[in-house]
Amino acid sequence: MTPKHHTCDDDAGVPAPGGLEIFTTRLMLHGVLSGSYRRFVDGMGLRGDERVLDFGAGGGAAARHLAKRLQGVGHLTCADISPAWQGVARKTLRAYTNVDFVLGDVRELELPAESYDVVVMHWMFHDVPAADRRPVLAALVAALRLGGKLFTREPSRKEDGIEVTALRNLLGGAGLSELRSAKGSSFWMGPHYAGVWEKRTG
Ligand SMILES: C[S@@+](CC[C@H](N)C(=O)[O-])C[C@H]1O[C@@H](n2cnc3c(N)ncnc32)[C@H](O)[C@@H]1O
Fold first, then answer.
1. Domain tally for the chain?
2. CA 192, 40, 118 angle in degrees (round to 5)?
3. Average pLDDT over residues 122-140
4. Is residue 1 in some structural domain?
5. Which of 2, 21, 80, 122 to mutate to test the pocket of ligand 1 (most atoms within 8 A of CB)?
6. Which of 20, 64, 82, 174 is the most exposed place for a label (fewest CB within 10 A)?
């Protein structure tokens, strides 16, 4: 589950990650890429009292920075479809009392409507099968309050990521407006798109 490789969707027919994959992924995400995750979270400008949903939180590489930011008044929900990765996230975040975990398909989780100030979708939406992307986004947007923001960063290579135009069309079609975006590329992550979107209509 390093950002370069698709893995880990054991509920969707892809084998669950083994111990070695979990070990190397944690090494990568909490080591080499830790600064990149921290900067991504810092760039959100959170006050610290928000209710945040980390959708596809994986092993908690972004979530651990979010949980730290929200310590005190804010709250973080980590959602994932993979029991194995959620187990890793629970371990990573065990010191935090402001975090809860939900497991399963977001369309079936019955997240309370308009209950989150922020949704984070980091390096995971390209893993969602194309046919599921619209309904998955609809469920996420329903859980976001009016004026709430969705922060995303996704690999943008056609072969193993999601094309920026396709992603923008999906987000716009789900009732979100793009506030800002950046395209970047790095040795470890490859070309990627980062965007901040706001829910403007109910
Ligand atoms: C490449 S990992 C990224 C994890 C984390 N966001 C990060 O940046 O390190 C993708 C994660 O998304 C999860 N995932 C994929 N499809 C999902 C879905 N439909 N609902 C919830 N989680 C999903 C996978 O189980 C996996 O943990």
1. 1
2. 105
3. 96
4. no
5. 80
6. 20
The CB of 66 under 6 Å from ligand 1? The reply is no
Residue 82 CA: which ligand 1 atom is closest?
Answer: 25
pLDDT greater than 70 at residue 10: no
Q: 141 with 175: CB under 8 angstroms?
A: yes
Q: Is residue 28 part of a domain?
A: yes
Residue 162 confidence (pLDDT) above 90: yes
Share of the chain above pLDDT 90, in %: 77
Pocket perturbation via mutation, ligand 1, pick of 11, 124, 151 by most ligand atoms within 8 A of CB: 124
Residue 5 lies in a domain: no
Spell out where the chain has E strands: 51-55, 75-80, 99-103, 116-122, 144-155, 176-186, 190-199
Q: Tell me the pLDDT of the chain averaged across its residues.
A: 90
pTM for the model stands at: 0.91
Q: Closest residue (by CA) to atom 12 of ligand 1?
A: 56
Q: Domain range spanning residue 20? A: 10-199
Query: According to the model, what pLDDT value does residue 15 have?
Result: 65
pLDDT at 19: 84
Q: Give a yes or no: residue 56 inside a domain.
A: yes
From 6, 9, 111, 153, the mutation candidate for ligand 1 (largest count of ligand atoms within 8 A of CB) is: 9
